[in-house]
């Protein structure tokens, strides 16, 4: 089961993904790092940017631009099977908003949201949930 993720320089998302223990691939931070192309179904883990958009309407771009670029590749987008998002509960109603946006645009389930780098309970819930539902989500690599 492949986990594709974007993690900024804070590394919160990377630390969460590392604790899951699944094979993973990181969406590059810098434009000069080249493009990530995936070749199997995956779950996307993505942080949410800019809290308070629902109130202020000043930052309506909760999905990091690097993730948008990755998903704008039709091949990559065709293999996404679910999304998980990180965020900060201080964002209020925008907590985990990136997951909502990606789920709606890519027509995949938004299966979980966690705060910052996630707790051990978050890791357990996500790991067990993905393993239990891998077939249903289509996360098993096809031969």
Automatic annotation (TrEMBL):
It comes from the Bacteria. InterPro entries: Flavoprotein-like_sf, RNR_Ib_NrdI_bac, RNR_NrdI. One of its GO terms (molecular function) is FMN binding. Belongs to the NrdI family. Probably involved in ribonucleotide reductase function. This is Protein NrdI. It comes from Corynebacterium uterequi. The lineage of its organism: Bacteria, Bacillati, Actinomycetota, Actinomycetes, Mycobacteriales. The gene is nrdI.
């Amino acid at each position: 089961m492949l986990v594709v993720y974007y993690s900024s320089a804070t590394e919160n998302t990377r630390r969460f993904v590392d604790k899951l223990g699944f094979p993973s691939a990181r969406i590059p931070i810098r434009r000069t790092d080249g493009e990530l192309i995936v070749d199997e179904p995956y779950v996307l883990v993505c942080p949410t940017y800019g809290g308070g958009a629902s109130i202020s309407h000043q930052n309506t771009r909760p999905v990091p631009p690097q993730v948008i670029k990755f998903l704008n590749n039709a091949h990559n987008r065709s293999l996404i099977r679910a999304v998980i998002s990180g965020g900060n509960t201080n964002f209020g109603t925008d907590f985990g908003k990136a997951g909502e946006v990606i789920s709606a645009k890519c027509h995949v389930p938004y299966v979980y949201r966690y705060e910052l780098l996630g707790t051990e309970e978050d890791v357990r819930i996500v790991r067990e949930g993905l393993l239990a539902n891998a077939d249903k989500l289509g996360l098993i690599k096809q031969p």
